[in-house]
Amino acid sequence: MSELEHVLENPSVYGKKLGEFTTQCPFCGGPLHVVEIEYEIPVIGKTLIVSKKCSKCGYKRNDVVPLAGKEHLRVYFKVEEPEDFDVKVVRSPTARVVIPELGLELDPGIDAEMFVTNIEGILQLFLDALHRLRVLEPEADISAIENTIRQILEKRRGGFTVVLDDENGLSTFYSETRNLLVLSERTG
Ligand SMILES: [Zn+2]
């Protein structure tokens, strides 16, 4: 379970609960339980997490809203050493993930949620996306890039950059154990 999931499961332990109420579920009309939590995400700072859960149909959604001013940010992390694969990645629903050296690019999902993973998890995300592409377009030749990613994961071989391009400036890299060189760039 990721750190953010822990926060969402135990809001009062990790974050400050700001409000809690019940409204109507947009899908089944059942009781939708809404909790608003103020939570400090490393590097990004204070955010508001709005967590919704329907007890009737099971609909669940977590939205993260920055409490600080939002601005378009592009953050870069160069993966070099094997331990860089453990660096944490906070990816917001509005972030595009790009690995220029491998020609990989992943657009934000339509219904994506905020989540915390690591560099390894990001590469896994690309493998999953390629797998979906293979199902949708069996003709697409993706075995070369798939093999490249698998080898990188297996050998923890660095030499590429992960870019998080986020119009809400909510995505970042961090480590609890070491200082990282993370470059960020404001755009537009
Ligand atoms: Zn429902």
UniProtKB/TrEMBL annotation:
Belongs to the ZPR1 family. InterPro entries: Znf_ZPR1 (IPR004457), ZPR1 (IPR040141), ZPR1-like_arc (IPR004470), ZPR1_A/B_dom (IPR042451), ZPR1_jr_dom (IPR056180), ZPR1_Znf1/2 (IPR042452). SMART domains: Zpr1. Residues 23-175 form the Zinc finger ZPR1-type domain. The keyword Zinc-finger applies. This is ZPR1 zinc finger domain-containing protein. Keywords: Metal-binding, Zinc, Zinc-finger. The keyword Zinc-finger applies. GO terms for molecular function: zinc ion binding. It comes from Infirmifilum lucidum. Gene3D superfamilies: ZPR1, A/B domain (2.60.120.1040), ZPR1, zinc finger domain (2.20.25.420).
